[in-house]
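Q: I have 442 residues here and want to know how they pack in 3D. Can you give me a structure?
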Amino acid sequence: MKKILLIVLSVFVVFALFPICSISAEESHIRKIISDFKLEELINTDSFTKREETEETIIIKNEKDERFVFDRQDNLVSFSRMNSMKNNTNQVLEAKTTQLDFVEMINDLENKGYIPEGYCQTAAYKYFDDIWVFNFEKERNVSNPYDSVKLCFDAIDGSVLFYKRFNDYTEQLVPQINQEDVRSIVKEYGKQNGFDFVDIKISNPMIVRMSDYKSDPTEDYALIYKASVFDDSMELWINGINGSTELVSTVESYDAKCFYVTDTGVDDYTVTYRNVRASNYNDILDLLGYSSNVQYLSNHNTARSTMLNYINGYDSWAFTFSGHGSATAFGTNDGQCIVDTDDIAGYWSFVVLDCCYAGNASWANAFDVYDYNTLGRSFIGWYDEEYAVKCMVFSCYYKDAMEDNTSSSVLSNIYTALANIPGDDYYHIRYIGDRTTTGYKS
């Protein structure tokens, strides 16, 4: 009997010292991050009950799809609560925050190690009245977005919406040619292709993951100079080690079923990018419950009639077009296929005009999408010039966001895609429509 009492007493002492409901190391880490990000009043720590594992990461999330991603060494890789953005409703609020409002918070996160020592701010910009984006890279002569940090804040209440530590490539490459060498290479390329390049703008050297842009890259990461010509309507990427021309990209100006077109007299990469973009949007439409396919408009003489037959069809609900565009028309660069706002008819649920200058109210209204009060409908477009290669990159990351966050809104997934793209480039994307819809076919 004494033995039994002794055992019971021992068990009681053990549980008293080490309660069954003690906080795990994982929970403790999450609590600390929430505290460091000053989100205690906005996030319920106990709500993170869903756990997923990959070979390299552990993902912990809640019902709102707020999520933490850790590596196998328990380091924070990323944090996202884009679904909780204040303007993720159809009652759009006006943002009062400025860039200066985030200085104290950024300094605090630097002191706590979320932004590593030696990293400096390379960009800060706001997407409409929705989010502020800040990018930080290690201070060096060659920009490397794959060794960087990205922070996004809510433009309304200033809270942290997104954090990501990019740590994909840390090797330091040293340029073997300078900007004047690049200028000579670009001029020679122009001469060989019948162009007279006069005003050539050349970027500082940067690291680029070539597999994001080419299907058969000679190297995964390359040191690149970007040279723009023709008033920024064409961009050439020159290898900073060997001087080779890695890529040529044109601006998608004048410019589902997911249609894409070829150009007259344009390099094969532009066509490939449009194929990838159309395929990505097709996959998104399939995910959203549409019966979709990709159609390549190789014959410019029949391209207009082919698209209008679909646009005016009785059972057409979703449409994407990758090609050239303007504020009132989209089509091909040779003018043989032109569709304008007056040609559009019908009721549309999901539209992407993947071409320059088409991200405006005129085009959205043509597809029967108005402001933020058109319930269940989405319109996405580029409101300014954008290089074909950037259009392709966005479509890839947007597809990933839609696949990973199926319960999130179309709009919050756009911002999740933008936040996950390495680097400090601004993307001239515009969303018009229901800010709460997930985009699924009803």
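Q: Anything worth noting?
A: The first strand starts at residue 50 and ends at 53. Residues 277 and 420 are 17 Å apart (CA to CA).
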